[in-house]
Amino acid sequence: MDAIVLQILNGLDKGGAYALIALGLTLIFGTLGVVNFAHGALFMLGAFCAVSFKKLLTLAEVTKVPSDLGFPVTKEVFYLEKWFGQTGLTIIDFAVPLAILISIPVMILIGLAMERGLVRHFYKRPHAEQILVTFGLAIVLQEIIKAIFGANPIPTPAPQFVSGSANIGEWLGLGQFVVYPWWRLIYLLFSLSVLAAVFSFLRFTTWGMVVRAGMQDRETVGLLGINIQKRFTIVFALAAVVAGLAGVMYTPILPPDYHMGMEFLVLSFVVVVVGGMGSLPGAVAAGFLLGILQSFASMNEVKSIFPGIDQIIIYLVAVIILLVRPRGLLGRKGVMET
Amino acid sequence: MSGIKDGVSRRGLMKGGAAAAAIGTAPLVFSRRAWAEKFRNDPGNAKSIKLGFNVPQTGAYADEGADELRAYKLAVKHLNGEGDGGLLTTMKPKSLKGNGVLGKKVEYVTGDTQTKSDAARASAKRMIEKDGVIMFSGGSSSGVAIAVQSLAQEMGVIFMCGLTHSNDTTGKDKRRYGFRHFFNAYMSGKALAPVLKETMGGERKAYHLTADYTWGWTQEESIKNSTEALGWKTVKAVRTPLGAGDFSQYITPVLNSGADVLILNHYGKDMVNSLTQAVQFGLRDKQVNGKSFEIVVPLYSRLMAQGAGKNIKGILGTTNWNWSLKDEGSKAFVKSFGQEYGFPPSQAAHTCYVQTLLYANACEMAGTFYPPEVIKALEGFKFDGMGNGPTEYRAADHQCFKSVLVVKGNEKPTSKFDLLEVVKEVPRSEVEYDPKIFGGELGPYKV
Predict the structure, then answer these.
(1) Which residues in chain B have Cβ-Cβ distances shorter than 8 Å to A184?
(2) DSSP A60-88
């Protein structure tokens, strides 16, 4: 029982990340008809917003001091610590949650620049060309990040007071072995909140209603005198923000490196396909479903019966679902069909 | 026989034959270094030789590769008599004169292994065939090292391994044309076990998470053997895919497995992620079987420790070399590297630098670049002053034997480089083994 509860939690927090990335992917596909392979890079850029913000907070006065090593070594004192003492150190400790505030405008700008500068030129081109150009863009972004930050993962911890783990077992009466990191629980709640906010925005606002209408029938919405293209551009920026936020909050779980987006991108694409291309609820449902299945497949009991199943489970499920329901779990008729 | 009858006696003929044979072989007897053999990329009368440095310049180990490249460039500088000489000032015995190698200036080309065996082989092949390198070196993955080592044997060009820790590199996959200065997983196990017993006791239950490739397998086996010999039990050994990213699904089963030690047979990014996540899951705060739960990382590197941040504090492991060592060789290398680049070198940088000097020195000893003779000069070569105390390149498997460092994550680092604290220098005698235990054949000298 302990193991099952833990693997469900593992699946949910991983599923939260998949769902956030897949939501953005399918939002872009549903509105603009673009298969955006640079979406994983947006997740990575979000994570590096947190890294950059932390670097900004930890700017330090550097002095060279003589050492017994035969060359002078650098000594660093954070400006924030120098100016504000303990308060400065507390601000540094909260770098990741504070980075959310910075990442929203940054990701909007990146999203707008990406859509206006490159992606819009490929709206009417075949999907294969869209994939090639966005994949190329992802590689360029990766290499830029590597050139600036290096290839090694960069530790970006959560604030000290949530760095431990919660004793969920005691809460649920399951014993001392069911513990789960506080930050992962926060991440799960955060992803559910972001998903709820995006759905509410699209469901309960006039702006969102127009976007949904545009996803159904772009031409008719255009004929009503609404500049649907402009709104879709904003949707691209919104998707970038969602991916970026997912990245910011993921940094304490996975020390970010330049390649982290690519690792999530492939799985998120499978999530989108399983959920149904263009279906927002499908992407979310498939994100959590595949996250949980992946966790269960990694259990020793399962692997002893099916060795290596943890490596292929997601793709196996994708094959089965596509055979049984070629449009995915909640896919719409006519999307990517001729 | 008619000649004999005509006045040339049999004795005379034999004397004449012996004299002719003596004259004919005289050049070989009197000029030991005059190798008539043709060999691949023979520099002949050229004024310079080229070395190939094949390191990961892209991919997950790019930072380690960058540090290796810094070390190689420094080694070339010192070989050519520039800079402060680095380890040339402390190495003994030494045949190098600081005027290149055998009077020829040292140049180099670089390649990118991408930490992929096929890319590394392609890059090495280009260096050998197009750039004409006389020796190549590089590292950061045992899979890559083993792949290019076999290429070295096929093409008859010596490969001086960089960072590779799998037992297989100088075990079942050893090659005559491959040499490893770095230590291996067996030595890590042997060096670590007594310290583990001292700090954690003789009754422990260990759970292994192991990177699923040659290095991970051999390290798991070596650490299991060493810890089980202490009386520890192995509860479970789970293989994890390389580059798994999120290890939570592998860590949660540890919580109720009954294990009180987690051994992470991971390196690089995998180690950073698995250790960070194991700490987040509160493993280090747990009490199991009446003992504090412990985590062990058998192979450490400073670059990895930087990535793991404060999570490494107090965690035990082993390393080939650390910049904080106070012997003359280490001090000279740290000073030289620090003056050049502004920070101390990593263990990867150290082993790559030393390997370059050892190859060059062997050429001077052999008096030729002819690989079979250079190999013979390296085989059994005993040296000191290179940072690890007295060291020997064992002839039977081309593995260097020297002391091994047991380290732990520094509780109170004084700088961002001061991440590992040396707990014990384990002497060579305690980590040595019979080369036959890992099998393998070195192969021929002449290819």
Answers:
(1) 248, 280
(2) EEEEEE--TTSS-EEEEEEHHHHHHTHHH
Does residue B420 sit within a domain? no
With respect to residue A120, please indicate whether it lies within any of the assigned structural domains.
yes
CA distance A235 to chain B (A): 30
Interface subset of A 8-37, CB within 8 angstroms of B: 10, 13-14
Order the strands of the B105-112 sheet from edge to edge.
B105-112, B48-55, B135-138, B158-161, B178-180
Note down the domain range covering B173.
Answer: 48-183+323-402
Domain membership flag for residue A215: yes
> The domain that contains B274 carries what CATH number?
3.40.50.2300
B407 in any annotated domain: no
In a domain, A336, yes or no: no
* Residue A203 pLDDT exceeds 60: yes
For the segment A123-166, what is each residue's pLDDT rounded down to a tens digit?
A: 888 888 888 999 999 999 999 998 898 877 888 889 988 888 88
Which pair of structure tokens corresponds to residue B413?
A: 């680092």
Residue B5, pLDDT > 50, answer no
- Chain A: nearest CA to B103, how far in angstroms? 30
- Using an 8 Å CB-CB cutoff, list chain A residues near B308: 155, 255
CB proximity A183 to B under 8 Å: yes
- Tell me which chain A residues have a C-beta less than 8 angstroms from the C-beta of B273: 153, 254-255
Backbone angles phi, psi at A79, to 5 degrees: -60, -40
Q: Tell me the mean pLDDT in the region A80-97.
A: 93
- Residue that has been written with the tokens 């007594």 in this structure: B194
- ipTM above 0.90 for this complex: no
Q: Is the pLDDT of residue B414 over 70?
A: yes
> Which of A146, A177, A262, A304 best probes binding to B when mutated, by most B CB atoms within 10 angstroms?
A177
Domain tally for chain B?
Answer: 2
Q: How confident is the model at residue B37 (pLDDT cuts 50, 70, 90)?
A: low
Q: Cβ(A22)–Cβ(A275) under 8 Å?
A: yes
Backbone angles phi, psi at A2, to 5 degrees: -55, -50
Contacts of B280 in chain A (CB under 8 A): 163, 165, 181, 183-184, 252-253
